[in-house]
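INFO batch 0412 | record 1 of 1 | parsing
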Amino acid sequence: MNRFAAVALLAAMTASGCATGPKGIPTRSLVVEGWAPLRNESRPEARRQAVADAQRKAVEEAAGVEIAAISLVDDAAMSRQRLSSTSRGSVRSFKVLSERAEDGMLKVRLRAVVEMPGKDDVRKPGWAPGTGPKAYIEASIDETTSAQAEAQGAFIRAWTSYGGEVASSRGSADLILRSSVETHEVDEPRVRPYVSARARFSLSASQAGASGGTQWAVAREAASLGLDARDAGSRAVEAAAAAAAEAAAKELPSHLWLSARASK
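INFO prediction complete | emitting tokens
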């Protein structure tokens, strides 16, 4: 390849926003914007949530989203439905470009470099007994106490089923996991007399003892039908939390907890 051809190829890769990372892993650089509500939380907490939201959007835009739906039918009427979305990839690096408050929301714009693993690179979720991370799990949930308890319970059940452990304090943890859940009823006349609800479970991770912010984040959504709003919401929360736990067990970078464990 002559010099001019090499320059042309480099320009083409730069223009498309695609490149390759370590060991030939394909990457994509793109600019996204994340939002978080500015209610009673401090601005740093809203900033963390907005950055996590932007990182999720970057992965979804770069790697795409897989949709899975499960429907159960009893006596020719749909009695239960679950819908979930999954996106695979990781944010290798990012840089905040701007930040502004608007209409009660904090909006953070950043440039992210997303790694997109191939199908053969996606490992099965979980760890062998005694080898998984011990996580201290914090909730930051703007919901009712019942929704918070349901989300935490569903996540912990799934997390431990994959070999993860739960720490009783920050000092005994290898990893800090922060979760939040949002639920809302969906007005869908076609499913009456049943009620539809949707839930979104967001999870972020940081190394125990680290001074930095979020180092890994994921969000999962699920929809479900129930006999009433509470029943539908509970089913959707459980599905979304379980999906987030599966994503963590499959994609959470091992260096986040192994380095913390080695330093103890």
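INFO post-check: The two ends are 52 Å apart (CA to CA).
INFO record closed
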